[in-house]
Write a structure and sequence with these properties.
The complex is a heterodimer.
Chain A (H helix, E strand, L loop, with lengths): L2 E12 L2 E12 L3 E5 L6 H8 L7 E6 L2 E2 L5 H7 L1 E3 L12 H15 L20 H11 L15 H14 L4 E4 L8 H18 L2 E5 L3 H7 L2 E6 L2 E6 L1 H6 L1 H8 L2 H8 L1
Parallel strand pairs in A: 3-8, 3-9, 6-7, 7-8
Antiparallel strand pairs in A: 1-2, 1-4, 4-5, 9-10
Chain B lengths: L1 H14 L5 H25 L8 H17 L5 H23 L4 H21 L9 E2 L15 H25 L1 H11 L1 H6 L4 H27 L1 E2 L6 H14 L6 H19 L4 H15 L6 H10 L1
Antiparallel strand pairs in B: 1-2
The chains are: A alpha/beta, B mainly alpha.
């Protein structure tokens, strides 16, 4: 499989704290990659650097052969790399449907559609359907159709997570980065949510990277696991191999953090 | 919306034939202020309060004044056009700085800039310093209306421009960029991560707001027939925010209704107690905030809800 995303030698420090030390990883197209590690190990920093929120001190990131290291988040999003957040980033005062419609509006605008002088209803690029239908189709896929008139602010935690991910789908991502998609979700719902998200990503043909603390979720859904510790990748292999790795056992799986999340 | 706006315009055109001169004056000034507040509405929807719209109001007024004084151009439409263009150009440049800021920083920076203009005008003898200067009566497309008809002609021209502005802004608010306003207010991170630039959207809105303020300033200048640096003073910006709060941001017609109510309260308060009119205005604002926090326009929504 061709490499879609290639990070080489990424370094990032905040004062005396090293969040990334020579992090390198080549992500193959259509793969599902799990990122594991304790809090502060550098998983989110890795995602933040890829999506342009943080600029690495050193190193380079290439997307389909193109250097994206210094691009702004919006430009990276337009290229097809989209992300969800550990704490869902929604438009709190607006309804679920309006959240989707604003996202679709941005996609239309970036496609040069729906401008001031355009007449009639434009079709959403990549979907070939009118905005409202696309919004409802995506909400339906994530089980949010019933909640479409509710305010995003008052949704329960799991639904907020799903809306956050549904928003990323609007941009037709080629690479989807999910920061802890199942945190704050009850243990019983985790597998269902992951399945739903991966089905949706697969339907769009997106490569997926997800941060996860629950090793059961990781071993079930990831094809490949990157284990982070202290700003470095200490293991990079299929889940079974990584979870048997003595270093990973010692620094990641055996940690307090994982036990807490696993039993929640 | 188009029908409603056209209806109001025609109504005003007919009613204007019977309106006394002073009422037409109040009406025209209200339209001028309404234009400024219409721009403010765009920014308020993004969660931005500009304490310095008077900058563009005053720029528009002085551009119109300079046209009349130095170039002998008194056509009201040319004055409004140039006033809007000068203000828009200024906002385009200033916007590169201001669009980076939010909240209190945006507000105070905009205020500081308008006070700089005030300071410059006060020091400029050629423009009349603190006294300002008078502007000759308006002409329309080269025709000078008879003395009895000047107010009516200016009012109708103003109403026409305001109707056009309201419709254009209404349409703008329905475009993807226009709809982005509440999203910018709620969560800029998400806006960026959906592939849009919040800063650029704010910049565009800032320029539109300035053009509207410039047109409003030019209109006020030619209506009052006199301009002075006080138009850029911070209390002038405060007036516009007062009207915006009074009116509410729910509809593009709200600023004009708000400006008219403001004009009425202002005139009455001044009539009843010339020395304490500010106090009466303050009390009026207090009452409105307590009972109608969404502005006067929210009454329309409440009535509609009760009927259905």
């Amino acid at each position: 499989m061709p490499v879609v995303l290639d990070a080489q030698g990424l370094c990032k420090s905040f004062g005396a704290v090293t969040a990334a030390a020579e992090v390198s990883a080549a992500i193959e197209k259509d793969s599902v990659v799990g990122l594991i590690g304790t809090n502060g190990a550098g998983k989110t920093t890795f995602i933040n650097m890829i999506t342009g929120y943080l600029k690495p001190d050193r190193g380079a990131i290439a997307y389909e052969g193109r250097d994206i290291t210094r691009l702004a988040p919006r430009d990276i999003t337009r290229l097809g790399i989209c992300r969800s957040f550990q704490i869902p980033q929604l438009y709190g005062s607006l309804s679920v449907l309006e959240n989707m419609m604003i996202g679709i509006g941005i996609v239309l605008r970036n496609g040069g559609l729906g401008g001031y002088f355009s007449r009639g209803e434009p079709l959403v690029p990549g979907f070939g359907r009118p905005p409202r239908e696309v919004a409802e189709q995506l909400l339906g896929r994530f089980g949010l159709l019933e909640d479409r008139e509710r305010n995003a602010q008052v949704l329960p935690g799991g639904a907020r997570k799903l809306l956050d991910i549904a928003l990323t789908m609007v941009t037709k991502p080629r690479v989807l980065l999910l920061d802890e998609p199942t945190s704050g979700v009850s243990a019983g719902e985790k597998f269902g949510i992951m399945q739903m998200v991966l089905d949706a990503a697969r339907a769009e043909g997106a490569t997926v990277l997800f941060v996860e603390h629950d090793m059961e979720v990781v071993s079930r859904f990831a094809q490949r696991v990157l284990a982070f510790y202290d700003g470095r990748i200490i293991a990079d292999a299929p889940p079974q191999a990584v979870l048997q790795d003595p270093q990973v056992k010692r620094y990641v799986v055996g940690s307090h953090d994982v036990r807490r999340n696993g039993s929640a | 919306m188009t029908r409603l706006v056209l209806g109001i315009f025609v109504l005003l055109a007919i009613a204007g034939l019977w309106l006394p001169q002073w009422a037409m004056f109040i009406m025209t000034v209200a339209i001028a202020r309404g234009l400024v507040v219409l721009g403010l509405l765009l920014l308020l929807r993004c969660g931005l309060v500009s304490f310095g719209q008077a900058l563009f109001y005053c720029l528009g007024a002085y551009s119109a004044g300079a046209l009349g004084r130095f170039l002998g151009v008194s056509d009201i439409f040319v004055q409004m056009l140039v006033g809007g263009a000068v203000a828009g150009l200024a906002a385009f440049v200033i916007g590169f700085l201001l669009a980076r800021y939010r909240g209190i920083f945006f507000g105070l920076l905009s205020l500081a800039l308008s006070m700089i203009l005030y300071g410059l005008l006060v020091k400029t003898e050629a423009l009349g310093s603190t006294d300002g200067f008078n502007i000759p009566p308006s002409t329309l497309f080269g025709v000078r209306p008879g003395a009895d008809w000047v107010r009516y002609a200016v009012m109708i021209s103003a109403a026409g421009v305001a109707a056009l502005a309201a419709l254009l802004v209404h349409r703008y608010l329905l475009t993807p960029l226009g709809r982005l306003a509440p999203a910018i207010k709620d969560n800029e991170i998400r806006v960026e991560y959906m592939g849009a630039s919040a800063r650029r959207a704010v910049h565009v809105k800032y320029v539109i707001a300035a053009v509207l303020a410039g047109v409003g300033g030019a209109l006020a200048a030619t209506t009052v027939g006199h301009i002075d640096p006080d138009m850029a003073y911070w209390t002038s910006s405060g007036e516009f925010i007062f009207i915006a709060i009074l009116a509410g941001t729910g509809n593009v017609l709200a600023p004009f209704v708000g400006a008219l109510i403001y004009g009425a309260i202002h005139t009455m308060a001044y009539d009843l107690s010339p020395h304490t009119w500010q106090m009466s205005l303050g009390v009026a604002l207090l009452v409105l905030i307590v009972f109608l926090p969404q502005g006067v326009w929210s009454l329309a929504g409440r009535l509609r809800a009760r009927r259905s």
